[in-house]
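Chapter summary example.
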Amino acid sequence: MEQVIKYKAKDGGIFNSSTECQEHELLCYQVQQAMAPLGDCPEAVANGKGWLQHSPQTVIACRQAIMDICVARGMAKTFHVFNLPAKDVHPMSMIGRILDDYGGPLGHAWYRVRRIDEKGREHQQPYYALNRPDKEQICVEDRLA
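The structure predicted for these 145 residues follows.
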């Protein structure tokens, strides 16, 4: 019999070494900080009952912060699009495909960015960011007021 030691990150990820686990937790923290200006997603948005309004400048700043993390991790050496300004990168562009394949916290963060339309409205899914939302959908903040 051989003893096997694994390391579990706070988000549930399992790693073979403490170094890999710590690196992953650092990435999770960096992504959390990058996305913090957007705040939490209300349940009404997550359930498709409406959208949440953000400042378009805040959305661009979050996109840039995620792209900066990618540059710091060396992804720009392979994919030059990470060197572009976030305001010039469409959320559904190549970056979205790369980060979707990459998965993990970066993939989850960019998926959230993809759910936000050019007016700063965060929807349940990217479909509504590209297509006009249903007439029944309103800003969830209006429902809370």
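To summarize the output: Helices lie at 18-35, 43-46, 56-72, 75-78, 94-102, 104-114, 126-130, 140-144.
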